[in-house]
Amino acid sequence: MKMKCVAVVLLSLATIGFLRAQSFYIVSKNQHFVQTSAAGVAAEPLAPFSFRAHTTTSATLTLPDGSTAALSAEPRKDDYRLDRKFATKAALDAAFPNGTYRMTGAAIPTLSLNLAADNYPSTTPQLTSVTNGAWNSGGVLVVNPAQSVTLNFNTFSGYATSGVAGLINFYFGSMTNDGNDRVQLEVDTFSQPIFGAPALPPLTTYTIPAGRLLSGRVYRAWLEFDTVSAIDTTSVAGSAVGAVYSKDLSFWVAAQSPGTSTPPPVIVTQPASRTAVIGGSATFTVDITAGGTREFNMPFSFNWSVNGREIDNDPNSKYLISGGSTGGMGFNLTINSLTAADAGDYAVTIVTAGGIATSSPATLSFATSSAPAITAQPRGATVNAGTTVALTVAVTGTPTPSYQWRKDGSIVPGGTADTLVLSNIAAANAGNYTVVVSNPSGTITSNAAAVNVTSDQPSQLPNLSVRTNLATGQTLFVGFSTIGSKTMLVRAVGPTLAGFGLTGTHPDPVVELYNSGAVKIDENNDWNSALTTVFASNGAFPLLAGSKDAALQRACSGAYTAQIRGAGTGVVLVEAYDTGGTGKLMNVSARNQVGTDDNILMAGFVVQGGAAKTLLIRGVGAKLAEFGVSGVLADPKLEIYTGAGVKIAENDNWNALLQSVARSVGAFDLTPNSRDAALLMTLAPGDYTAQISGIGRTTGEALVEVYEVP
């Protein structure tokens, strides 16, 4: 017996009598069916069986085995419910066995409700035929809104004899959010006189008048057959206390004017499973197209469910459903104030006049809480006035901790992220910085990081080196960008590496240099000994005389890419040096295949001078697919090591707060919520290595980038 809070537009005489009972205290066992064609009905796929308990006042339900369950208050409604869905009848009966149920509460006497033995209607509800309508291939009943539509039902064979009474309920309602389309039609008929309503013949047809529906809109219908096994109208004044066995059928109806059509929805991104914490929130997202476009500008219905139970679209409830009838590229469900009862499988059904699409279920589970722990302390630095300083802390903890930075013990306004960015730093910013990290399981304070401010100290990013394995037919990409003119030295070292004890070195690398227009402007196969003095003056180790290593030097201004390839396979070291000029080297990068163990992507760089430098360092994999790169590393991990081999920072999934920093240095945007990696760090002069590996030992093409942040 469905309890609906609706504005009823068309009611039968029996329904008017039925509503004279002002409240309900009911338990029911239910079987659910769907119809998507004229051929017949099928069990509802997500959860074909359910148990329901409904009260008007707060109550506790006692099961036949003596266990108890509390009923939850329904938002914006003066009632309380317990609604559990099941995949099988055996699971339903195991959780809620037949027998006597009791309701107790402060506002009611103890009520007994008897589900003594299965007494489901012997007939399953079905729409047998339609006048002025037909099923489409998408599983939607399409009707002509300009004509009257008659829905013909089969007959509830136990209507007059089973239990206390038979009840047939038909409900038809709008499912698209349009203020001009609020159709809600309902009719109930009883086989026995109840609540002053007369007994009526079973409902076998229902006619929707011509012009009542709007073309292009989506509607939903329920046809329900109930056996009222027990009823009591005296225990609670003005209320019904009863037990019901029910079978109900749902189907979708689309009003479509002749000659028009609507494409069916297609789910292009399924909702992903989430792990959350008690008291927090979780969001599920689904992306859809219709007719090949994400511009979803057509009437539609969408229904989220948990464990087969539909979720009420109520902005005042714990469920926040975003997305609208005017379209968009996705629909979101956010569950707030999470409790253990929210665990389960969540799915969404989207319906247009063209068809139905139901997502795969996504599971919400809960993580064990843990207190915050600092895995990388913030590092102080001496920086030039007018530059940017980034102090970073790395922590673990569940739920995700909050941050509050302090300077000399005082709160830093706005310092509530894992990275504290101080722009255009001045002498007043000098001091000792700490960060307090908290979650419900604990609080911890970092070590102090001393920031000192100087002026006019040299500080530059003079080179990048990449060591990796270069396979036959493979290309390693090394990029750099300058502001103004710089003379750059690019080397691809293979054979000389054997002198450092490396085995399996590349026998003959080749370097080619391309400008921003992808035009090759220089190349070298075997290096020229005239560059020997250039190597020495820039701190580059010497190459073996007559070796097959490659090197070239060229004046550059703008963006360039060095491509390294060659016959054979083996380890190669590629280096790009700033060897002079009036301009400034702003960024360096490298792209190659990331393997495992010794074959991960490693990029070395140097901060040179008397002051620290702030750098944006990124490990990009997933984003590369948008640039046509195949076989990308889906989930890169970025780790930063000092020249002494000490890990000082790491990142798995990048923080969206760094998007504005990336734009300020001319870096391309990363896709929101992608699994690319990024760090913003202020590093003292010294040698560093950025390492890119795949989470879970995955492999693929990745890009490492180092940008100077002014």
Keywords:
710 residues; mainly beta; Immunoglobulin-like; 9-stranded antiparallel beta sheet; disordered N terminus
Structure description:
The chain is mainly beta and 710 residues long. It has 5 domains: 13-255, no CATH class; 265-366, Immunoglobulin-like; 375-454, Immunoglobulin-like, CATH 2.60.40; 463-586, Jelly Rolls (Sandwich), CATH 2.60.120; 595-710, Jelly Rolls (Sandwich), CATH 2.60.120. The strands form 10 sheets. Strands 1, 2, 3, 6, 7, 11, 12, 14, 15, 17 and 18 form an 11-stranded mixed β-sheet that branches. It starts with 12 loop residues before the first helix and ends with a strand. The model is unreliable at 1-22 and 324-329 (pLDDT under 50).
Radius of gyration: 35 Å
Summarize the biggest pleated sheet. 11 strands, mixed
The overall strand count is: 55
If helices are DSSP runs of H or I spanning 4 or more residues, what is the number of helices? 4
| Low-confidence runs of at least 5 consecutive residues | 1-22, 324-329
Average predicted local confidence, pLDDT: 86
Principal-axes geometry comes out as elongated
Q: Which structural class do the helices and strands define?
A: mainly beta
What is the strand content?
over 45%
Separation, N- and C-terminal Cα atoms: 68 Å
The overall number of domains is: 5
Helix content: under 10%
Task: Compile the SSE list and pairings.
Layout: H1 13-18, E1 23-37, E2 40-43, E3 49-55, E4 60-62, E5 68-70, E6 72-73, E7 80-86, H2 89-95, E8 99-105, E9 108-115, E10 127-131, E11 133-135, E12 141-143, E13 149-153, E14 165-174, E15 184-190, E16 205-208, E17 218-232, E18 239-255, E19 265-269, E20 274-276, E21 282-290, E22 301-306, E23 309-310, E24 319-324, E25 327-335, E26 344-352, E27 355-358, E28 362-366, E29 370-376, E30 381-384, E31 389-392, E32 394-398, E33 402-407, E34 410-411, E35 419-422, E36 431-439, E37 442-445, E38 449-454, E39 459-460, E40 463-470, E41 476-483, E42 486-493, E43 510-515, E44 520-524, H3 532-537, E45 550-556, E46 559-565, E47 570-578, E48 584-594, E49 601-609, E50 613-620, E51 636-642, E52 647-651, H4 659-664, E53 677-683, E54 686-694, E55 700-708
Parallel strand pairs: 1-18, 12-18, 20-28, 30-38
Antiparallel strand pairs: 1-2, 1-3, 3-7, 4-5, 4-8, 6-7, 8-9, 10-13, 11-12, 13-16, 14-15, 14-17, 17-18, 19-21, 21-25, 22-23, 22-26, 24-25, 26-27, 26-28, 29-32, 31-35, 33-34, 33-36, 36-37, 36-38, 39-49, 40-47, 40-49, 41-46, 41-48, 42-45, 42-47, 43-44, 43-46, 48-55, 49-54, 50-53, 50-55, 51-52, ...
